[in-house]
Every structure is written in C-alpha cells, then in structure tokens.
Amino acid sequence: MIEARGLARTFRSRGRNVEAVRGVDLDVHAGELVGFLGPNGAGKTTTLRMLTTLLRPTAGSATVGGVDLLADPVGVRKKIGYVAQGGGTAPECRVIEEIEIQGRFYGLSKADAVRRGAELAAQLDIEGLEQRLVRTLSGGQKRRLDIALGLIHSPGLVFLDEPTTGLDPQSRANLWEHIRSLRGEHNVTVFLTTHYLDEADSLCDRILVIDHGQIVAEGTPDELKSRLSGDGVSVEVPFESVANAAEIAGRLPGATEVSTTENVVRFRVPRGDTALPELLRALDAKDIAMTSIQVQRPSLDDVFLAMTGRTLRDAEEGHQ
Amino acid sequence: MVRETWLVFRRHMAISLRNPAWVMIGIMQPLLYLLLFGPLMEKIVSSTPGFPPGDSWQILAPALLVQLGLFGSMFAGFALLGDLRNGVMERLRVTPVSRLALLLGRVLHDTVQLLVQALLLLLVAYLVFGMRAPVAGVLLCLIMVMLLAVTLSSASYAMAMLVRSEEAFPALLTTISVPLLLLTGILIPITTELAPRWLYVLSRINPFAHVMDAERASFRGDYSVDGLLTGSVVLLVITVLAVWWGARTFQKENA
C-alpha cells in the first residue's frame, strides 16, 4: 500500500537548514494497522504530510496506494483519506454541508455523499447531528466527524495524525474501537502517528519508532518489547543494605542491568514472576528488610529508551 | 474545475448568509462618509475650480465604491487565515479538488458580496441625496467595481497565504491600503490644479487612481476614450496580475 525509500524533508528556517526527516524507508501492506511512534518533533507529522501530498519531499521517492507520489499527486489524493491532527472543519458550517462538499470533491454525487455520510455517521456514533453547526459539537464528536470526512470516499488507505490527542479518556477508548473496526470490518489500511505508548501498543499490528527524523526500530509491539531482556524489577531497601541487595540480585539466574539509586535496586530478569520468590528468600536470609517491590513488564518506553538512550517523556520535554 | 469553483462559492455564500452582519459592517465606513461627508462636498465642488466635471455626488459615489473595495475586498484574506488555522484548507487540499477552484470560488463570493454592498450604497445616494447618473454609466461602473473586487480579494488571499499570521496581516493591509486610498483622491480629487506636482505624479503611479478616473467618467456619462481607456486597461491588467498571483500561492506544493 505504501512504499517509501529515502524520504527526506529539509526546511529552511532563519537561514539554517532544519532536517525534519532524514531518509525514511517504510513499507505498509494492505490491511495493516501501522503506527508511527515518536516524541513531538521527531518528524512524524512531516512524514505524514509528505505521504499525503501536502508537502513535497526534498529527497526520496514513494508510491502510495500504488501511485507514484511525485509524478501523480492528484492520483494519490483520490486514493487516500487523511485526518489531520487538529481536525479540519469550519465552525460556521453545518455538519451535512461539510459531508456533502467533501464527498463531491471526491467525485461522489450529492445523493451518494449524503448517503455515505449517513452510513459513516451511524458507524462513528454521530448520527442525528446533520443540521448542527460544527461549532456546537463536542471535541469527541468533532474528531469523529473529521474521521467520517476522511472516509467519505471509502479509501483503501487512511492516514490518521495523532487521532486521540486532546481527547478525554472515554472518547479515546471509544475512538480506538472505531479505528480497530475500520481495519477489522472494512479492511482499510490504517497508518497512524502517535506519541502515546499505550495507543501504539494496543492498536497497532506494527510499529515504526521514529526519532530525530529517522526510523530507529520497527516491529510488532511484542517483537520490540522482547528485544529487551525481560521484565524490570525494582526493590526498595534500607539505604545501608543497598550494596548487599544489589549483589544478591545480581546472582539471580539471568539477571542483567543491575543498577542502584539511593535505596532502590533495579535489574532485569527474563521472568519476573519466578525470580521474585527467590529474591525475597535471598534477601530475607540476609536480614535485609524490603520496603517495596515492583515488577514491570517491558513497555514501549523501555524500548524507546533502549533504542534512543532517552525515555519518550524526556524526549518530549527536550523538544520543548 | 467549474463545478468545484461553484461548490466553493456556495459554501462561502452559505456561511455569509448565516452571518449577514458582516455585510453591513463592511458597508459602514463608506456609508458614513456618504452621509456625513457628502453634503459638505456640494458647496466645495461648485465653488472650487480644479475639480473634475460632474456634480459632487457623481464625484463622490465612485470614490466611495473604490473605498468599499479597498477596505472590504482587501480584507477578504482574513477568512482564509481562519480556514488555514482551523485546518479546513489542509483537509481540502488533500482532496483532489483543483487548487484554483479553491481560490476562484472565494473570489466569486467576495465579488457578489461587494456588488451587493455597492448597490446598497448607490441606492442610498440615489434616494437620500438625489444623485443622478446615467443607467448605462452606472452599470459600466459596477462592472469595474466587480473587477476591482476580483483584483483586491485575489491579492488579499495571496498575501494571506504568504503572511499567515492573524496579527501581522491587518497591519500589512492597513500599511498598504491607506496610502493607496489617499493617493486615489477619493475625497478631494488629485488634479493638476488642486495638487502640488509631486502629489499628482505619485497619484498617477497608483493604478487605483486611474480606475477611479474611469469610474467617475462612466458615472457622468462620459464614454469617450479619453475618460475610460487608461482606467479600463489598468484595471484589466491588475485583475489578471492579482488572479495569477493568488493562483500561484494556492498551487504551491508546500502547504
């Protein structure tokens, strides 16, 4: 569905060149739900805007929906749907007016556009709102309207830029369901960008991790997590026993990356659940009193940290 | 592309008709000048040499139409900035719609809006102040006003696409439109008898001054080549240039 090689985009800003995207290669197959994960400023939106013909790449090539991006942008536009980060509806328009004009720009007749709009409204939980002015809709409703507009012409490929950013938790969960059903029931290929780890983890078949304009890791969520060695364990002990505790932890079978901070010992172990009883017994035998203990399954944050040397949160703060 | 232009036109008309207040606000300034300044002109025009021929209303009304254009159509770009900010432009640009249609639909809407305002203004001048002008002349003048609307709104959209800031944009427009307006000689015509030479020369460089002259000529029924030619040619040239400029900014590949 999407094939990109060496896609790059440089901006000139105040006399300096900003390389927002430096040589991105990607392949997305039909029916996949692929996520583009990275902190703000990583180049996600820029890459997306290149693939949707809004921005001309400064280097590289791509075919989107089987059409050459550089040679036939209008052809690409006919095949894809796009839902921008902030949405794109005019507050002073009626919902039905937006649906109609969107459909007609894609070549649907007025009747087809209205019918298709009603179908999508039912699927996306925004029925009955046709005559309302867009500015009277709630945030979640507006976002679902944006998605309906992106799907009005039943494209085989849809791009969603940060689809749940700014939504309340309930709307987020709701939207995830809708996105899953897009792929599940309607076989639409979905390419989304996000900086939410839980979103990438729970929605996507495959994740591309991007940082500083380049893809740093690629795979299914489980694949990425399993590249790290196992679960993370952290034990809190009295300050004076930290060194001893660390030594004991280090002797557990398969323990790696043992580290200490003040009164916490951290390490990784292939199976946190089996290592725990051994650890507790060993610490007890040496009379080391534990104050708290935590086992964590690897998260994408750990993946990001391992790939780029910093956590997603630090990366976001750094970018600001 | 014609169908798409029509769709864009209808969209903007629907939005405008939902907020008719904007039409009235646009017409306020010229209307106030007409009502509160116009009566002063009568005595001045009849007793001062150096004014172009015609009674004071025939001199003032076309001038107010230019003023309506310069401060009305010229600010059309504002609506575009709103659409850029709320993501509508980006969404529409991902569809296969022709970028030119996105411009022309808007321009067509602005032209209709200016026409309505112009007719209202002329109606007031006719009814309240007894302004008389030949029908053919008025029609010709209105055609010129429409072309003026096309020029100014296209240019406004081009500038809006380039400036993109809702703070900088009005500042830019005012910086441009005030000197243009003053050098058009709308309140007191800039003629060789009334103005010092340097001012006269500056006003001759202003294309709107020539358009102004042609409008005044048609308003008093003077269809001679002398009166109309320069202004009409200038108007057509600036219309073509403005639309070309607007089209270029809309078709740029980098949104």
What does this structure look like?
The complex is a heterodimer of chains A (320) and B (255). A 6-stranded mixed beta sheet of chain A has the order 6-7-8-3-9-10, with helices on both faces. Chain A has 320 residues and is α/β, with parallel strands linked by helices. Chain A is elongated. Chain A has 2 domains: 224 residues, P-loop containing nucleotide triphosphate hydrolases (Rossmann fold, 3-Layer(aba) Sandwich), CATH 3.40.50.300; 69 residues, YebC, transcriptional regulation domain (Alpha-Beta Plaits). Chain A contains 12 helices and 14 strands. With 255 residues, chain B is mainly alpha-helical. Chain B has one domain. In chain B, helix 1 crosses helix 6, helix 2 runs antiparallel to helix 3 and helix 2 packs across helix 6. The interface between A and B is medium-sized, with 31 and 23 residues.
Task: Give a brief rundown of this model.
The complex is a heterodimer of chains A (320) and B (255). By secondary structure, chain A is of the alpha/beta class. Chain A has twelve helices and 14 strands.
